Amino acid sequence: MALIRRLQLNTGTVKQFSGILQQREVHLPSFVYDKAYVDGKWVAATSGMTFKVLNPYDGKSLGVVPNMGEEDCKAAIEAAHAAFQEWQNTTAKERSMLLRNWYNLLVKNENELAKIITLEAGKPVKESVGEVQYGHSFVEWFSEEARRINGEVLCSPVKSKEMILIKQPIGVTGLITPWNFPMAMITRKAGAALAAGCTCVVKPAEDTPLTALALAALAEEAGFPKGVFNIVTCDRDNAPAIGKMLCESPLVAGISFTGSTEVGKLLYKQCSQGVKRIGLELGGNAPFIVFNTADVDKAVVGAMASKFRNCGQACVSANRFLIQEEVFDKFVAKLTEKMQQELVLGSGITSTSTLGPLINITQTMKVNKIVEDAVQKGAKVLLGGKQAVNVGERFYEPTLLTNVNDSMTCYKEEIFGPVAVCIKFKSEEEAVSIANDTKRGLAGYFYSNDITQIFRVAKKLSVGMVGINEGMISSAEAAFGGVKESGIGREGSHHGIDEYVYIKYLCFGNL
Ligand code: NAP
User: Which CATH class is domain 11-282+489-502?
Assistant: First the structure.
């Protein structure tokens, strides 16, 4: 904490959210600021406008942050562009060491960061600690990968020539991130971009800017030069203009976006004008298949983790449980029991709750509408089925639906809530056909103990990631990404760097 205090002294303009949470008997960590971070300075919006950050648990304000507009975004892009002129020439070792410093600070402040995530995103603090550990694992990973962005010496087909491929950073990157993993979605992108020698302008979601600002405070403390890592905060109304500017500015070389498929498509279109590099991590509609040979107990444990983490608000959440007929009743009975035993709604700050609120009212209403649509069309509600208004406005009861068919929204679209939907199938072909009957293709899961089936089904699923007898698949070492309308490119793994480098071919002639 001494380092953090020094940071505050060094940045005289920084104002803390002092006391804001004292009335609510919770305290925000001391490095949560009410200013955005541009060109190494903590700044207000030029308009002076701010917006409130709400605690989804009770809808109360945690404080305000700058509601930046195009002028502020332009300044951040220019700062990132100016910083890139030096940053691109740093050595891989220098970048690696700064990333390592940042990682060490993120580890040191793990609990404080988790508290910020819980307060603004609503997830139980144990899950927030999990996100912080997942989030900083990308900074650690890319601090190591930074040292291995090697080129290639090719075998020339002619004696008089030598041919070499080198990798160079693309330049300024615009990183647009969602609220559901407010730390990890930033570090998964920024870790790779910074390792490659790019500079960043990050636009976090309206719902979760505080985590982003805390990351910036620790990045500054780690020693990143001014302008290398910038955070532009804005509300939902200003997001389209900021996004457009990031996509269309000639000073920005590439965009990396995580969020909805709808917004992803818009950004893709906007990037086409300048033929920008673009990485898209979009929505999913994950099938979770349980075959007759599966260990049903293990499948239920995997189902709970995959479905109810972050209250179902994860792009890789199981969206449709496809259960083979012989084990259908057993699976549904055991899942019902586990849901009743393990899911406790409440404030994420308390250690007893395992299921937080949905992020905002819009999301709560969306989930409600999806369940109502299913019920109207004949779905059977085994558990839940309505808002848990006794706990809070944004809470939804853990819900289990059967008798689901392809006319229902919950069959076709990402639910993004604590609603498990079970569909019975007869054959492997039928399961694969239902699983692939969607425009999305992010993650898929299946449980089977038939080795021949395991290889067959793993290859046939039209998704970017497959969990086989496993419900939790994310890791810095793995290549995260989807196929079809779930996105373009991969994050994490050594492939995560590819988004941020150009390959340049050097041909040495007349040798
Ligand atoms: P979203 O509405 O697309 O928002 C994501 C980000 O884009 C936010 O920062 C948002 O700002 C911003 N944004 C919204 N409209 C924009 C526009 N016109 N131009 C530029 N930026 C804009 O998505 P969400 O509802 O926050 O997140 C849920 C979706 O993200 C789900 O579909 C989920 O599957 C997907 N997701 C995917 C992954 C993955 O890795 N594939 C991971 C997590 C989530 P505001 O918050 O201010 O609106």
Answer: alpha beta
